[in-house]
Amino acid sequence: GRPCGEEGSQRKEVVLSHETAVNMLHLGPDLGSLDFMGAQMGLGVFVAVCGKNRVACHQAANDGFRGLFLVCFWGPDRGKGIVVTSNGDNAAVAMICEIALEIMLIEGWQGVDYRPRSVFAEHAAMKQEEHVNRGVKDLLLSRFLPDLPDKHQSRCGDPVDAFSKLSLCSPAAVMIHRCNNQRFARAENLFSPLVPVFDPLAFGNDGKIMDSWETQRHQEAEFDFVEFSISTGDKPADFDLIHVSTIYHDGNHASHCQLDVRDDSDRRSSERWVPVLPFTSLDGHSSHWFKVCPHRGRLFRLRNYPDGGISRLGLYQSEEVLRALVELSASRAEVLQRRDMFPNASALQSFLCNGSNGGQSLRLRFPFEIGNEQKPLVVADGMQGVAGGTVPPLQSSSGGRWGGGDGGRSGEDDPRRLAVRRAWSAVRAGEEVDIAGELYGGRVLAASNQHYGPAARLLAPEAPLGMHDGFESKRSRQPGHFEEATIALGPPGFSGCDPRELRIMVDFTYFVNNNPREVEILGGELPSGQPSLVDVNWQVIVPRTFVKPYRGNKIVFPITTTSSGHGLLPAKVSVLLIRVFPDGGLNRVRALSMASPALLDEIATLGLRRCS
């Protein structure tokens, strides 16, 4: 921050809050700044991708003055920054960029192409406001390398797809021109000649490494896309059969796709995309074959609606595929038994033998699962929690319970009880404690969808290890959809606390491309006797809040009557309901409260704290 206010002792250092900084650096939809400046728009700043670095930047231009600042806020060069100013006009732009580039070279910034280039040439017809932006883009920001997800590493002996030599989309023939999003997995994988593989242990900087094209969740645009050309000599590519595979994507697959084509040799049609495969639904973990009327083209655009994964794309001539299938049946029948290549070879052959042209499709789900089926929620060493069900007491590994009707004194020797007692005994009055944490007796009681990660990990005391270490649901496609997890505060028998004493922290550390769009938190009090979640009078304590800017970060919600959104708060809360809209993942939830003497006394009455 910089000094402001009165001179002398009245001066203060003004620093941007965490919330302000996060929102300034959040990227909204691209409205043309990538073409104009070579960087995306934040709030009051541009944000440029520089390999694994993210760089906040802005140019300056007044009469007789030019300037530029660059600050790396994310990545291996985080904390480095450059400010260059000059008392020149347009001619100073090249000097400023050259100085900035030299400083980056000396300081060892990563993600920059330092090779010599031709000097930016000003054009007389260029508008005055374009000189600085175009100069910075062409001379400096165009040197910043793209940030692609970790590449899937094929291994020697990986099987080759039986039809790969017949596809017009061979890696040697395809050139990708534009792709608006490939945050999870690279678009180049669409055209791999190898059979897709799935490694459940392969994780990289951007999450799960997939042998496919996969985009991030909750894009602002209607669809994601990849534009590519096919080199087939003098003539455009001819095809009448399209294959789209979503193998190993189930719950995170693109719900629809569309393939557009154009022939850039015909100037009259070069600006018009023609849909050859119209807007079409896709199934998860499936092989899709589409017959289309014979088409030809050089430029193609695959649309991915609204986001998600597509594993392979193939363009064929149906007669060649049928001929190859017949030859396989005669000479290499064992290949047809590969279920990751042919879910049902006879169904495919029958489909191809059908003489109809265009409008026909075949959908075949691969006959094996990939480990993403919904996982049961295990609460407290073996008890299953079901939404709306009775709150389960903690249970020991030997079957004995603690936290029953005797105020939590049964099962005195239970290891879980002893661990919680040790944790509470170490807390001193006035210290902040996470009363939702499993270390202090908190439990996840129910969760709606745990397709990729168990909700129980939300309360783990240690820092998260990855995307798998948290609560993550599959991608939803229904308007108004949300997922939720219910958390009991403190150990069994705890009566709750005043919500105004809480700060709720939500941690998205490893959810960079798939954190929720919004979060809402409700609080309530479990009734006495035989408590059931259906009897809780839920009240909003944190209204729906846009949290997309906090990807890979944390957000803290102090609870006040203002924060609730309607001026009312429950008198006490002993359970929290965390809702994420429309879906996504979070690593941890902390309910932080000051340990008052009254709180510690109640824990002591439950036999979970040594009296001092």
Estimated helix fraction: 10-25%
Strand order of the largest sheet: 3-4-5-6-7
What's the mean pLDDT score? 85
- Report the total helices: 8
β-strand amount: 25-35%
Produce the secondary structure layout.
Layout: E1 2-4, E2 12-14, H1 18-24, H2 33-37, E3 40-41, E4 46-50, E5 53-62, E6 65-74, E7 81-86, H3 92-107, H4 128-139, E8 174-179, E9 203-204, E10 207-208, E11 213-214, E12 224-230, E13 237-245, E14 256-262, E15 274-281, E16 286-297, E17 299-305, E18 309-310, E19 312-316, H5 318-331, H6 345-353, E20 361-365, E21 378-379, E22 383-384, E23 394-395, E24 401-402, H7 415-425, E25 432-434, E26 443-447, E27 471-472, E28 483-488, E29 502-507, E30 518-524, E31 539-546, E32 554-558, E33 575-581, E34 585-586, E35 588-594, H8 597-605
Antiparallel strand pairs: 1-2, 3-4, 4-5, 5-6, 6-7, 8-12, 9-10, 11-18, 12-17, 13-16, 13-19, 14-15, 14-17, 16-20, 21-22, 23-24, 25-35, 26-28, 27-34, 28-33, 29-32, 29-35, 30-31, 30-33
